[in-house]
Amino acid sequence: MINELLVPTMAEITTIADIWLQGNLDAHHFIAADYWQENLINVREQLPQARLFVAREAATEPIIGFLGLIETEIAGLFINSEHRHQGWGQRLVTEVKAEVPQLTLYAYEANASAINFYLRQNFVVCKHQIDQATGFPELSMTWQRELSA
């Protein structure tokens, strides 16, 4: 089940932030763990500013993943470790694509699994750049809904 949290509770923000932290630690082994841990408080404060789409196995079940959207930028897409590789990320992206005609995101070049995931979701690489916060190379990727004939 995918839905948008219109007014997330503090407990939901905490769960989402914990998924964010663990996801970053798992996916970005090339960046010091301290970087992610030091940014956790800031992320908790910023999460309510984003549109948050969450994944749950059922309406009354805990959040197992999320996609954070700021305007048309996917600011984060993370699934907890027990539910990865089960289609939840694709379902979140599909839901957001139905709502927004164009999306952008940034992925570290060293995170090949994320890049391959987004390529399978029909995103294209637009630009190579350096993430100013970490100094690591990243890709800017975009997706745009095709116009109907």
CATH superfamily, called what?
A: Gcn5-related N-acetyltransferase (GNAT)
What average pLDDT do the residues reach?
94
* Number of H/I helices: 4
| Residue share in β-strands | 25-35%
List the helices and strands and how they pair.
Elements: E1 2-5, H1 10-27, H2 33-46, E2 51-56, E3 63-70, E4 73-79, H3 88-99, E5 102-108, H4 112-120, E6 124-130, E7 137-144
Antiparallel strand pairs: 1-2, 2-3, 3-4, 5-7, 6-7
Helix pairs in contact: 1-2
Task: Please describe what this structure looks like.
- There is one protein chain.
- The protein is 36% helix and 32% strand.
- Helix 1 runs antiparallel to helix 2.
- A four-stranded antiparallel beta sheet has the order 1-2-3-4, with helices on both faces.
- The chain is of the alpha+beta class.
- A hairpin with a 2-residue loop joins strand 3 and strand 4 (73-79).
- It is built from four helices and seven strands; from the N terminus they run βααβββαβαββ.
- It has helices spanning 10-27, 33-46, 88-99, 112-120, and strands at residues 2-5, 51-56, 63-70, 73-79, 102-108, 124-130, 137-144.
- The chain has a single domain, classed as Gcn5-related N-acetyltransferase (GNAT) (Aminopeptidase).
- The chain is globular.
